[in-house]
Amino acid sequence: MNARERGFTFIEVVITMAIIALLASIAAPLTETVVRRDKEQDLKRALYQLRDAIDSYKAASEAGRIERSVSSSGYPPSLQVLVDGARDVRSVKGERIYFLRRIPRDPFADPRLEPLEQWGLRAYSSPVDDPRPGEDVFDVYSQSEASGLNGVPYREW
């Protein structure tokens, strides 16, 4: 057996490494896109949960199950109320109506913040193009300055 038949040549190893590097350079951006798409799905899911809970609170308020003042819009005064629940005025035992188990996190927000601090709040009285908090929570939005893969800023989702 001579020396040429024992192993790989230097050229073969270099070509193999070049092919592996090329494949890795193609896979890295793809992996980044997949991770971002997963975060966007999490954001959509969180926004849906929060908005559904806000709408359920409003429906319970309009059905007379939650105590509210005449001047109130019927929307929850805070996101925390959705977790803590509201007293069911129709219940003799003083039971509560719960709308969320917990406040979902914004996947694009600073993970050191509490979930309640991650969301932007829009009051019923604030304009669509300039959402501001107020006496109630009519809508929520991501406070991220980034845009989605579709080009729409997360704040507008």
UniProtKB/TrEMBL annotation:
Where do transmembrane segments lie in this chain? 7-30
Asked whether the keyword GTP-binding is assigned, the reply is no
Superkingdom of this entry's organism?
Bacteria
Which keywords belong to this entry?
Membrane, Methylation, Transmembrane, Transmembrane helix
One Pfam family assigned to this protein is N_methyl
| Entry-linked InterPro entries | Bac_GSPG_pilin (IPR000983), N_methyl_site (IPR012902), Pilin-like (IPR045584)
- How is this protein named in the record? Type II secretion system protein
Q: To which species is this protein native?
A: Zestomonas insulae
